[in-house]
Design goal:
heterodimer; A: 229 residues; rod-shaped; B: 203 residues; mainly alpha; 9 helices; globular
Chain lengths: 229, 203
């Protein structure tokens, strides 16, 4: 029998709304709600006339994190605009263009200034009278030697300085660079990188402009220092 | 002079709009659902706590209810249904299920001043800005409830506000089960007759 025609319909709606309709009786009534539009209509009528409005005075704030938990469980992020929709397509385009500009122009200029792995000081070279002090820092990849003079020292117009590696095995000095000033950055040839280790020495000699004509030091050695580890 | 203001601050039109935007499952659905939660969760939690009596279980009920609200938002019929009543029904049903399955012997025996209960829980005095129909309905309902026999009114309010079953009502009121069932049935019938008389008086 259809519940819509049942004389007890109002009573059932009432008990359902009040909450005393339980168990099988409640499930049967809920099935009728889905299947019989007239039953649903009648219930709605009673919902609107017979249910009091709750007072905000009994409201209780949910625990912190309750919303976050719900948001996670239902994966609500799927139903939010993505960032480029939020900012609008043109602004997104402008942001992308700016980023491209930064990558193309600014970054190459800035990159060398960014701190990479720190170079390590491997030697400090001194003159005999200790008036000149030169620090030699080796980059982390052992390919760049940075020379830092305690005060600027520049070669005269007809002379050059030459940096030598004196190998640990007492072999012949190896020319690493010809310098116009002691402050310099020197690329270390790969085959000599291994030679920059404890036992070897670094030295600077004064040579004719352009460097030693013989491949070995010809002028006075003004600075010398031991290579550490 | 303080303007009398309704404590019932949920705007039914606004809630319907939020439910519809939740149901469409678009880019704005999460925001709409969140707004719905912020507006309704506190009162729904208050209702759940009245029913369950324990805060942490009430929080669970509200959580589960909002999962349900999210999943079945599209089933809400905005043309004829009341948005908040729809959500309250979900919370109440969930709370009743939890009460039965946890066999929650209501931990603190509800300490109820049954007479004052209806006035504290519900909002009978809608503010001047609330919609005319709602005001008329609330007034009619309040009058009809006060016209009920005290025992009928007490049983209805306890059953509704605390989701007491017939059995629980019988033990709370120290009355035989059959008597309590009769009180509920007659109370509802009187309430219906009274409300229908009010509706006819309006027409």
């Amino acid at each position: 029998m259809k519940l819509a025609n049942d004389p007890r319909l109002d009573a059932l709606c009432g008990e359902y709304l009040v909450g005393t309709l339980r168990g099988r009786a409640r499930r049967r009534f809920e099935r009728a709600l889905r299947e019989e539009p007239l039953v649903a209509l009648r219930l709605r009528h009673w919902e609107q006339t017979a249910l009091p409005l709750y007072s905000q005075a009994i409201a209780v704030q949910p625990a912190r994190g309750a919303w976050k938990r719900l948001e996670r469980e239902l994966q609500l992020d799927r139903y939010r605009p993505s960032w480029f929709q939020r900012v609008g397509i043109w602004r997104a385009w402008a942001a992308a263009a700016t980023l491209a500009f930064v990558l193309a122009i600014v970054l190459p200029a800035v990159l060398p200034l960014l701190p990479g792995p720190q170079p390590v000081e491997i030697a400090s070279l001194q003159s005999e009278d200790r008036r000149i002090l030169l620090h030699a820092d080796l980059s982390a990849d052992r390919r760049v030697l940075q020379l830092r003079a305690a005060r600027p020292v520049i070669a005269g117009p007809d002379q050059s300085y030459e940096l030598w590696l004196l190998p640990a095995d007492s072999g012949a000095p190896i020319s690493l660079a010809v310098l116009g000033a002691l402050d310099a950055q020197v690329a270390v040839p790969a085959r000599y990188a291994e030679g920059l280790r404890a036992g070897a020495k670094l030295a600077v000699s004064v040579e004719p402009a352009g460097g030693s004509p013989t491949g070995a030091p010809t002028g006075p050695v003004i600075l010398v220092g031991d290579v550490r580890g | 002079v303080i303007k009398p203001r309704s404590t019932y601050v949920l705007d039914e039109q606004e809630l319907k709009r939020l439910l519809l935007r939740t149901a469409v499952r678009g880019q704005e659905s999460a925001a709409a659902f969140e707004a719905l939660y912020r507006k309704c969760a506190p009162l729904l939690l208050g209702i759940a706590r009245r029913i369950i009596g324990r805060r942490e279980l009430a929080e669970e009920v509200v959580h589960d209810s909002f999962v349900r609200i999210w999943r079945s938002a599209e089933q809400f019929d905005a043309s004829s249904g009341q948005a908040f009543a729809w959500m309250v029904a979900i919370v109440r049903n969930r709370a009743i299920d939890v009460l039965q399955s946890h066999d929650v012997a209501r931990v603190q025996p509800l300490d109820l001043d049954d007479e004052a209960e209806a006035d504290g829980l519900f909002d009978w005095a809608l503010g001047p800005e609330d919609d005319v129909d709602a005001k008329r309905t609330a007034r009619a309902l309040h009058r009809c409830l006060t016209e009920l026999q005290a025992a009928e009114r007490q049983s209805l309010v306890l059953a509704y506000a605390h989701a007491m079953s017939h059995t629980e009502l019988a033990s709370h009121l120290h009355k035989p089960l059959g008597t309590v069932k009769g009180l509920i049935r007659r109370g509802l019938a009187h309430l219906r007759d009274c409300l229908e008389r009010c509706a006819e008086a309006v027409r």
